[in-house]
Design a protein that fits this description.
heterodimer; A: mainly alpha; 4 helices; 0% strand; flat; B: mainly alpha; 72% helix
Chain lengths: 68, 152
């Protein structure tokens, strides 16, 4: 069920990618640079969350209706 | 009102780094359940083992960089007078980071890319789902810990 949901989500988020991946037969890559990107991807997403957390107070302050 | 964001930010980086080290040391090396690309290149001979060892090394190098970045951000946060230095916030950030790492790694590497699975075999989907679920539970526990800190 989880795999079906993920397949569906990926096809909706990026139909072109989903078609290309289906033609290739796999989502992972062949070259060392692509391997590096694959290994680094979860780390990059964690860093993104960390950056957002660091700026959360500033973002809240800019939100409409926030106290000056 | 003191800020919690910078401490959460450093905790997320440190938690993800330490969680990555736990994954690499316990699951890749001690238990030898999987390697970075073991579903693509199963480590059945010396060449494929060396290939997987290389990418396990890259994985560990990235976790090391993440841990260093977390330590640096923690130092920066600790020196700021407007940052709330709360154990609950730091522990919450650590749990949030570890949980995020497990969830993201579980979804991206195990499910979307299929480069390896937690414990390959007949029950691999159950192990993979359990791994993602453990990450989500840690995220929730971390979030609750952060929210429970008294903001001065």
């Amino acid at each position: 069920v989880l795999l079906s949901v993920l397949d569906w989500g990926y096809a909706v988020a990026c139909p072109r990618c989903a078609t290309a991946i289906a033609a290739r037969g796999k989502l992972w890559a062949e070259s060392p640079v692509e391997h590096l990107f694959v290994v680094a991807l979860p780390f990059l997403l964690v860093v993104l969350v960390s950056v957002l957390a660091n700026h959360s107070a500033r973002l809240r302050a800019r939100a409409p209706g926030a106290e000056p | 009102v003191k800020q919690t964001g910078p401490l959460v930010s450093s905790g997320v980086l440190l938690g993800a780094g330490l969680g990555g080290f736990f994954d690499g040391i316990a699951l890749h090396q001690i238990l030898q359940w999987h390697n970075m690309f073991s579903s693509i290149e199963p480590p059945t001979d010396l060449v494929s083992m060396k290939f997987n060892m290389l990418w396990d090394g890259v994985f560990h190098a990235l976790t090391w960089l993440l841990t260093c970045a977390g330590l640096w951000r923690l130092w920066v946060a600790a020196r700021r007078p407007d940052v709330l230095l709360s154990s609950r916030v730091l522990v919450g950030g650590l749990l949030l980071g570890w949980g995020l790492f497990n969830s993201i790694e579980g979804i991206v590497d195990h499910q979307l890319l299929g480069i390896h699975h937690v414990h390959p075999g007949a029950q691999q989907l159950a192990w993979d789902v359990g791994f993602i679920a453990s990450g989500l539970v840690m995220c929730l526990a971390g979030w609750r810990s952060i929210r429970s800190a008294p903001v001065a």
